[in-house]
Design a protein that fits this description.
Order of helices and strands: HHHHH
CATH superfamily: Nucleotidyltransferases  domain 2
Strand content: under 5%
Shape: elongated
Largest sheet: none
Number of domains: 1
CATH topology: Four Helix Bundle (Hemerythrin (Met), subunit A)
Radius of gyration: 17 Å
Number of helices: 5
CATH architecture: Up-down Bundle
Helix content: over 70%
Length: 152
């Protein structure tokens, strides 16, 4: 079992963000192929999901399901004002598009829906990067303050 200290958090955050970036890159690549809109929407959604997991780690929370992760993002980031409710609503729009592509036996994701999913993923990824950079900066300040206290 891994202890969730600040060093482990940083490592896990970086891994989740790398996965998020790779999923986003795959979404963009798939969006350029005919008949791959379902797959592009799927990758866009998972880009968001991996970013959400990284964000939750900044609060010391490990996600254990999609529902848990989305609910925790709402509680920890939307209710605090760190993420806007509009940004959060886009997560559910992208989720809905992904569900159509992954589970609908009668529908395919349209090009327009796929583009919305990719746009939503890019926006969320940018917000996550900003919040994570702020977290890392705060961690560095705390580490420096601790070092200076020990030095004195």
């Amino acid at each position: 079992m891994m202890v969730l200290n600040n060093d482990n958090k940083k490592i896990m955050i970086d891994i989740y963000m790398k996965k998020s970036e790779k999923a986003f890159e795959a979404a963009v690549a798939l969006s350029k192929m005919d008949d791959q809109y379902d797959a592009a929407a799927n990758r866009a959604y998972y880009s968001i999901f991996q970013s959400e997991n990284a964000l939750l780690l900044t609060k010391g929370i490990l996600g254990n399901s999609h529902k848990h992760v989305h609910n925790a993002i709402s509680k920890e980031f939307v209710q605090s004002g760190e993420l806007s409710s509009d940004t959060f609503k886009k997560i559910y729009k992208v989720l809905g598009i992904r569900v159509t592509g992954d589970y609908s036996g009668t529908e395919f994701v349209t090009k327009e829906e796929m583009e919305k999913a990719i746009y939503g993923a890019r926006e969320f990824l940018d917000n996550a990067k900003k919040l994570i950079a702020e977290f890392k900066l705060e961690q560095e300040k705390e580490k420096e303050a601790e070092f200076n206290t020990q030095k004195d």
